[in-house]
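Protein folding task:
====================
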Amino acid sequence: MFATTDLATAYRLLIADVYELAGVSRETSEAIAARFGLTAARWYVLSVVSDTPAPVPAIARRLGLARQSVQRVVDDLERQGHVELRPNPAHRRSPLVALTEAGRAALDAVTEASSAERGALVARAGLSADDLLAARTTLRALLAAYPRDGERGEVDDDRSVPRRPV
């Protein structure tokens, strides 16, 4: 489709489409989350701590957000009873954020609704799981080429957020 000299153009077009898809996906995520009394931001934070409690700075890094904005979301989730703060043996002043039973129920409900809607979307697009995994392979190869924390190379597979809405 593009000549070798057009690599930069092909990259820019891909990134523009990724941003557009991310924007539309965020809008639909907000609508899905609202049906369960959540926002997309609250949903994302619940997703990050769904398997393992984590401190706010780690959640912020995982989501690529400012620590202060994640702290506000965690405070809201705590008021809703969806998360609890636990002592962090590694850092006394940075407690671990953990799901409560109510938080797990909310996350499961919003994830189930999202899965059904996203499945229908992928079917309408005529795509398979293999198609999506191939696209992910391309994006992860690009991510791996960017410097991270002063290093070049591999992107840790654990960076993907469990159950994170797309």
Remarks:
- Residues 158-164 have pLDDT under 50 and may be disordered.
